[in-house]
Design brief:
By secondary structure, this protein is of the alpha/beta class.
């Protein structure tokens, strides 16, 4: 065998050469692409990164004035930075259009790097937030060379070795020396929401005052200094805004001032199935003995004073500003409309009740008139069903988002807020701006975000005005419902800083204006808003729970003791604030359901295993228990599964006192022997089912015709013999009376029964007088032998006995 190695052929060599050439070309292209990447990307790949934050800034630059920008720089990478400089870049000398404000361009991509002000040098920047280095720029505005009024983009860059390694983008509104002449101010109406998720359900103590039991004590912290609701009232005081207040919130605050209890942690967790000692599920009687809320199993609420102080500050802060009273608990209009549209539940009565309760609560707690004719669906999103529901519920004004009501044709400038309400015969829509809505959706609490949001909003407002300076236009700002203090401060700063080209207005003023062109149309309902909506199953169960509560209340003599706390709790099930918190929403519904079911379980029918009915007719006993603290009026109905064998009487309506039980007899007629299943049901006086029926067997033992004749004959014979014995006894008594009369005629004054005690009612024949004879001295008369068998005492029988017929 040859030991020479085989050599590749010419074709293989050529193929290998081509593959090598392709590999070399790929490496060259990769190296070129890496060289073309931005410096920050390359540094990030090495694990380094710089974050530039702007914490303070002059909101509007004016001719002859100066600009101050403050912030800090953070090293978010893994290696320390020996030295770098922070500088200001003016990206363009021309004001931006609206499209440029929202553009995601990098701040360091274009423009001029300013040398006045001079860059700030930072040394030895260690990684980590604790090593952040502050920087400050103060410089005159005139040298920037800004001519026309408008919004200009600025960039704050961190640079090292001539490369940008971090940057922040902001905007600088500029007012030239001649100011804003011949410019119509933009009328800006601002909604100031004051809402929160529900913190109480329908549970109360069993006392006469029905002390409320809150699910948690979260409102106490929010009403206290530093809390969100406390800050919103303080920030909004003195501003010209429309307060959109949930009456449930101020109602809860008022309840807290009067004393309240709090459910202990963990007590609201879903119940685990409990078993009795014999391992069986608990009976209805066991459930009825559940411990009610009382001071021993709840905690004292600690927010009474802060709630009272918050209410006082709210009343003072509102002043004469307009107040929009949302439906009680801020009913989710979209959810109600979509449930009705799907045919799953009609919750319009609850919406009507929420509107009526809203006016009542606001008048009681704030002592001032409020409007209830403004509808604000979740996110301002609209479709035809929501429009119809709002219009049918009496809303004259609907707050809508610009994404839901788009212009029918592309507008040349930003359209005004006022619009006709599509799909409604009457009513006005006040529409927000889509771009501003996106800005308001950012988290203003994030580091440096508050200043950026403020400057971006100012840039938007100034640009809108300058689109058509001589035109009179309006704008609606509707922040998210759960606006925090950071966003509230942003809005306040924006309205104050833009006073040169805006004018604060109200919703009523905007709604009174004629709707300008172009007209608007309904767009598709946003998927993101639809995704946060309660499910149709949840809304159906809510509707069923409402009906169950109404049924239960109809048997009570004092229904307000139940409807008072539970009607508002059922309205809170439809709160818009549950959006985004499906677990909290389900837990709240389960809590309300459990509280109502515990009350319902206190009125029940004692369960029976069986009843025996002897004979053709009889009564079936039904025991109703009422463990409530008030009487109940119920109707007891018993139904037979076999009416041909067992016929039952009509339902009976009874009143059971509080804390008592009552047995109700239900008439029954049997036609055959055997077991028959019957259902016993607890109904309202008008016939609605209060509880599911209880079922048990009735064992019937009827008597046939032959047996009835035999029993009847025996009874007749017994009556005849009894009558004969009675008559015989009467004759004997009469004969005894005749004998006594004859003895009396012989002149013997001594009673015939002398010497014998008389036994009342005794029919014995008395012996004659003179008994015993004087010569009787032994067991035998005279001692002459045994007595006559017919007369063992040795005396002559009386005449009355010898004459008695046999």
């Amino acid at each position: 065998m040859s030991d020479r190695r085989s050599r590749p052929g010419p074709g293989v060599i050529v193929l290998r050469g081509r593959m090598l050439a392709v590999l070399i070309l790929a490496l060259v292209l990769a190296a070129g692409l890496l060289g073309m990447l931005p410096p920050t990307a390359a540094r990030a790949a090495d694990g380094d990164g710089i974050q530039v934050l702007i914490t303070k800034m002059t909101p509007v630059a004016k001719a002859g004035g100066s600009v101050t920008i403050e912030g800090r720089v953070l090293n978010t990478g893994s290696r320390a930075i020996d030295s770098m400089e922070v500088a200001v870049r003016l990206r363009t000398s021309e004001p931006l259009f609206r499209s440029g404000i929202g553009s995601p361009e990098d701040a360091q991509s274009t423009g001029t790097l300013l040398r006045t002000p001079k860059p700030v040098v930072v040394h030895n920047l260690a990684p980590g937030p604790g090593a952040a280095q502050p920087w400050t720029f103060t410089f005159p505005a005139d040298p920037l060379g800004l001519n026309a009024a408008g919004a200009y983009p600025l960039g704050i860059e961190a640079r090292t070795g001539g490369k940008t390694i971090g940057a922040a983008r902001t905007f600088l509104p500029w007012i030239p020396r001649n100011g804003l002449k011949n410019v119509q101010n933009l009328r800006v109406a601002t909604v100031w929401p004051l809402v929160d998720r529900p913190h109480r359900d329908g549970t109360t103590l069993g006392d006469e005052a029905q002390t409320p039991v809150f699910r948690d004590d979260g409102l106490a912290a929010q009403f206290a200094p530093g809390g969100r609701l406390y800050d919103l009232v303080n920030i909004g005081t003195g501003m010209k805004v429309d307060w959109a207040i949930d009456p449930e919130l101020v109602d809860s605050a008022a309840e807290m001032t009067g004393g309240y209890r709090v459910a202990p942690p963990g007590s609201l967790d879903p119940d685990k199935p409990k078993k009795s000692r014999d391992g069986k599920p608990p009976s209805e009687e066991d459930t009825a003995k559940a411990t009610p809320n009382q001071t021993t199993n709840t905690l004292a609420g600690g927010g009474g004073q802060v709630a009272a102080g918050w209410l006082d500050r709210l009343k003072a802060g509102l002043g004469t500003q307009p107040v929009i009273a949302l439906p009680y608990a801020d009913t989710d209009l979209a959810a109600v409309a979509h449930a009705l549209e799907a045919g799953r539940a009609d919750l319009r009565p609850q919406l009507s009740e929420a509107l009526a309760e809203s006016a009542t609560v606001m008048q009681r707690t704030l002592a001032r008139p409020v409007g209830t004719d403004v509808a604000w669906p979740a996110g301002g999103a609209l479709d035809s069903s929501i429009v119809q529901l709002a219009s049918g519920s009496g809303a004259s004004t609907v707050i809508a988002s610009g994404a839901s009501l788009a212009p029918t044709k592309e507008p040349r400038v930003t359209p005004s807020a006022t619009s006709a309400l599509p799909g409604a015969d009457k009513g006005t829509a006040l529409v927000t701006d889509p771009d501003i809505d996106k800005i308001l959706a950012t988290d203003a609490k994030a580091p440096g975000q508050g200043v950026l949001t403020t400057q971006q909003l100012l840039a938007e407002l100034l640009t809108i005005v300058l689109q058509e300076p001589s035109a009179s236009r309006s704008l609606l700002i509707a922040p998210p419902r759960t606006m925090d203090a950071a966003l509230a401060n942003v809005l306040k700063d924006v309205l104050n800083a833009s006073a040169d080209w805006t004018r604060s207005s109200t919703l009523a003023e905007l709604a009174a204006e004629p709707a300008p062109l172009p007209a608007r149309k309904l767009a598709g309902y946003p998927k993101a808003v639809r995704a946060s909506e309660p499910s149709l199953q949840y809304l159906t169960e809510t509707d069923n729970l409402v009906r169950s509560m109404q049924t239960f209340a109809s048997i009570l003599t004092r229904p307000e003791r139940v409807t008072g706390p539970f009607n508002p709790a059922l309205l809170r099930l439809l709160s818009t604030e549950w959006r985004g918190d499906p677990q909290g929403m389900d837990r709240y519904r389960l809590g309300v359901t459990r509280g109502l079911r515990e009350l319902q379980s206190l009125v029940y029918i004692i369960r029976r295993t069986g009843v025996t009915l002897s004979g053709d007719e009889g009564n079936i006993p039904v025991t109703v228990v009422n463990n409530l603290q008030q009487p109940v009026t119920v109707r007891i109905a018993v139904g037979s599964h076999q009416p041909n064998r067992l016929k039952l009487g009509d339902p009976i309506t009874v009143t059971v006192p509080d804390g008592r039980r009552r047995e109700v007899p239900i008439s029954a007629k049997s036609a055959a022997n055997g077991k028959v299943m019957v259902d016993v049901q607890l109904l309202t006086p008008d016939g609605r089912a209060v509880r599911p029926p209880e079922s048990f067997f009735v064992n019937t033992t009827t008597i046939d015709a032959l047996t009835r004749w035999i029993i009847g004959g025996l009874a007749f014979l017994l009556a005849v013999f009894s009558l004969r014995a009675f008559l015989r006894k009467r004759r004997e008594a009469a004969l005894a009376g005749d004998t006594n009369d004859e003895d009396g005629e012989d002149g013997d004054d001594t009673p015939s029964h002398a010497g014998f005690p008389e036994e009342p009612g005794s029919d014995a024949i008395r012996p004659a007088s003179g008994w015993p004879p004087a010569h009787f001295a032994g067991p035998y008369a005279g001692g002459n032998g045994p007595p006559d068998p017919a007369d063992p005492h040795g005396h002559t029988p009386s005449r009355s006995t010898t004459d008695r017929p046999e």
